[in-house]
Amino acid sequence: MRRPSSLAVRTTALCLAVAGVMAVVAGGISARLVLTASREITQQSLSDQADVIAAQLAESKLGAGRMNEILRGQGVQVVRRGANGKLAGTDRVAVQAARRAGLARVAEDQPLHGSVQIGGDTLIVEGRAVEGQIAIALVAKVATAEGAARRLLSNVVFALGIGLLVASGAGLLLARRLAGPLRRTAAVAAAMSHGRRDLRVPPEGPRELVEVGESINALANALAYSEARQREFLLSVSHELRTPLTAVTGFAESLADGVVAGDEVPEVGRVIGQEASRLNRLVSDLLDLARLGADDFRLDIAEVDLVSLVGESAQVWHARCAAAEVAFSLEAPAFPVPVRTDPRRLRQVVDGLAENALRVTPAGSPIVLSLRAVPGTAVLEVRDGGPGLSSEDYERAFERGVLNARYDGVRPVGTGIGLALVHGLVTRMGGAIEAGPAPEGGARFTVTLPLAAGMDATQPLSRQ
Fold first, then answer.
1. Domain count of the chain?
2. In a domain? residue 207
3. Which of 148, 180, 198 is where one domain is finished?
4. For the segment 410-419, what is each residue's pLDDT rounded down to a tens digit?
5. For residue 278, which of 254, 250, 248 has the smallest C-alpha distance?
6. Are residue 313 and residue 279 in the same domain, yes or no?
């Protein structure tokens, strides 16, 4: 594959091409202007000469021989019209040009200003009446003027050549000014692709290049921040994985070594099963979180009665809250609230929010699972009487690992996967979720989903 040319080469070539086009256009226009001006000057000069010579001949101040000698030295031929109307002259072509231009019609009140083409040459003819029927014509080839025109054109071409050299130099300077910052930016980007995050692009060059450099620097900062977050997340996940693995490994070794025997075996088996289930949930959450962004993430959409779904969930969480001495209550309408969603994933969302609430809610404080319908929307809330969050943390509650990093060691925390997964699931199902303070004193997580068509949202709630 042919390697593309560099920016310096392309910029220089472009400048030369522009200068070349300008040279051709300017040269053509200049040539036309020079030739036209030269022809007009020659015509005017020949006209002035004809006036002077005609006047001097009329006054007999200039002999014909002397006149012919002077004019031939200037490249001008003289044609004379006699009293009998015949044309005479020493140059046959000049005589022919005078005849064709109309010397025979020249009179005192009708001078001749003309030009004719003969044999590829342009001849300028200026005729004047002298006395009676006598008249003269001065004939000159335009070629006489073209010598001056060529000199002028050579000067123009020389100037345009200088312009091309200047354009090439300017192109090289511009290319270096552009290519230098771009090369440095490319070098920083290449280093970033190999893992460097400490390099930055210096702000130099034109405004557009400075903006490119600032964008690269912003990308480097974002990558560094993201990777730091990922490392923190992996550390927290590793810790969460290690805890149940340590328990499973320890009890399994106890069973294998015979340290645990008799009546203790069933209890050890239950602990191993619980820790294995915990591991399984954690791994499943990680897999779901990783798959959320994929196009093939599966949702089984169906019409679901939310009242029935939260009722089934409430039975489970009522028992778990009772075991932790936490007061659990359910607020739900006395009529169906149908939505089109994935019931398994929505139950996963409810259980994830309830588990998050139970983790931070102290004994004696409430957890409320609430469902209500407003026009066009089903609103599902999980509220708790725990310590709650700061206003800044509510805004970032669904970012992976943020709450874990913020409250680790301060209160019971999870890996930070659960809320991120809940947010992703709700979004994929076409709903929305937000966090804020709850009237019970803790946190409130609110999920909204569109109601199925034809739903009446004006009926009262029932409390369980």
1. 3
2. no
3. 148
4. 666 666 677 8
5. 248
6. no
CB 313 within 8 A of CB 347: yes
Sign of CA dihedral 263, 267, 270, 276: negative
Longest dimension (CA), the chain: 158
Handedness of CA 83, 89, 95, 98 (dihedral sign): negative
CATH of the domain at 70: 3.30.450
User: Residue for token digits 């006149």?
Assistant: 67
Task: Give the model confidence (pLDDT) of 354-402 as tens digits.
Answer: 988 998 899 999 999 999 999 899 999 999 999 988 888 888 888 876 7
Alpha-carbon distances of 178 from 163, 175, 181, 212, 241, rounded to whole Å: 22, 5, 6, 12, 52
- The structure's pTM equals 0.49
- Residue 190, CA distances (Å) to 71, 196, 198, 204 in order: 80, 9, 13, 19
* Structural domain ending residue among the three candidates 270, 291, 312: 291
Tokens of 455: 């739903």
Together in a domain, 251 and 379: no
What span, in angstroms and rounded, lies between the C-alpha atoms of 304 and 306? 6
Enclosing domain of residue 443:
302-463
Question: 391 vs 210, 280, 352, 394, 414, CA distance in Å?
Answer: 37, 33, 22, 5, 20
Contacts of 55 (CB under 8 A, 6+ apart): none
Separation between Cα atoms, residue 133 and residue 105, nearest integer Å: 10
445: helix, strand or coil: strand
* Crossing angle of helices 417-428 and 264-291, rounded to 10°: 50
Nearest to 426 by CA among 347, 369, 370, 362: 347
> Higher model confidence: residue 256 or residue 274?
256
| Separation between Cα atoms, residue 426 and residue 429, nearest integer Å | 5
Contact between 79 and 89 under an 8 Å Cβ cutoff? The reply is yes
Q: Sheet containing 112-118: which strands, arranged edge to edge?
A: 87-89, 76-81, 134-141, 121-131, 112-118
C-beta of residue 377 within 8 angstroms of C-beta of residue 448:
yes
The answer to the question of residue 189 being in a domain is no
Locate 278 and state its tokens.
Answer: 């915990």
Q: What is the pLDDT of residues 57-82, one digit of tens each?
A: 777 655 566 667 777 777 788 888 88
**Rounded CA gap, 97 and 103, in Å?**
9
